[in-house]
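To whoever is covering the structure queue this week,

Two jobs came back overnight. Logging them here so there's a record in the thread.

Job A:
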Amino acid sequence: MSDGVLTSIDGRVGRIRLNRPKALHALNTAMCQAMLEALEAWEADPAVEAILIDHAEGRGFCAGGDIRMIAESGAGDGKDAAAFFHVEYRMNHRLFTYPKPVVTFMDGITMGGGVGISLPARFRVATENTKFAMPETGIGLFPDVGGGWYLSRLAGRMGEYIALTGHRLDGAECLALGLATHYLPADRLEEAKARISAAPGDIQSVLDELSSPAPDPRILGRRAAIDRLFASDKLEGIFAALEADDSEWAQQQLATLRTKSPQACKVSLRLLAEGRAMPSFADEMVQEYAVATRVGRLPDFAEGVRAVILDKDNAPRWNPATPEAVTQDRIDAIFAPLPEDQAWTPA
């Protein structure tokens, strides 16, 4: 097992608690493997009727994945990064197909890898502390861990907006968009967990009873503008729509997009376009693994990590530098299927 994950059986539920607070519980390979092994053991255990996933301490539920390791590996042979993605995606897929109810508590920062743990769950609890985002285009990556599946299934063009800009959603917005199933005040979470542990057959009624009315979801006030301005499946089309709109909000989104990797944005748009028609979540993971193992070794990812995480100058020099310079051939190569002996497979 991993020190970064605490697993236990509490009453009639299996508990998975992320325990890497100094890194905001960002996932590493050992943590993903520990979670996968616990899920496999509990699936066959009749004494475990449901799974609860939360974090042990600190302000983040899960801030993502081990970006530094992925970048260091990508600068070399890429094997450690590929191993991480392989086991992480197996864990994501196991959660998605799990036969027993899973409850995730998105209390605090829920980004990247944290989204991949949260969204497969049958019950997804947001709070006033929730900060949900897929900010990968800002470091040259893309919204993986099933992002192509989940975001493409949001209403209108909300998924494209979230994927490209990395916009942060609060708990009320997560509830309104269907990313969360319940909104609970944070001070009711421990009661919810205790009651579910005692009576896992009553998860729905427990969460319904402890829920409180969420604040107005501000994002819905922008829905019409998002659907109009992010309507194109071509990045150049979205830039053109934003450039032609002189409203303050549109110009803010344009400024945000200009800080993102054009290559990562084009990858993200294609991922969502194809994700809508993906036959199964396993097929989605096969594609995302092929894309991740390639993008993680391209210059934009190393540059994004340098600018945002290492030097913190927030001035990445993307290559290619403009949407127009990112060719269709380049994107096609990123999305090409891997050879069968290298492809992702479920556990």
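Job B:
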Amino acid sequence: MKNPANKTHEHFMEMAIKQAAQALVAGEFPVGCVLVQNNRVLADGARRGTAAGRINETDHAEMAALKRLEEMESTLDKPFDRTTITCYCTLEPCLMCFGALLINGIRNIVFAYEDVMGGGTQTPLEVLKPLYREKPVSITGGVMRSQSLSLFRQFFSNPKNTYLAGSMLAHHTLES
């Protein structure tokens, strides 16, 4: 029998994978992100800026979701308790996104597929400045890994997709 927490993780990761699949259909790198609090999706996002040979390294799925969260919060009387938000990502957050999540108070991160080239979640917090290590962080990897891996294989197998082609991540993905 599956752990109920895993069922919840799978439920919300499935939503992130749908975001990633939509990005893939648009020719983008297939990363999706969903921000959840109390079993309610607050914001989501998908990777942008990689289609047609473009390279935009700021429009990551996590950043899009964080922007949507901020927009939503601006309409509320009081902000969310971000320490209770869980971030679900189809790819391990890079160092930029990991830092942005931490600065924004999000301490629960669940990802599907490990980023062997640029993943930031294994960064030892004790070596970072106090802003990044104020509270403990919970990181869970490998949730629905095979489903996410399938999207990345499709992306890297398509010769039209030049973003990160030939990279360590592409080789790891195609060999996994």
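Note for Job B: Residues 4-25 form the longest helix (22 residues).

Please reply-all if you pick these up so we don't duplicate work.
Q.
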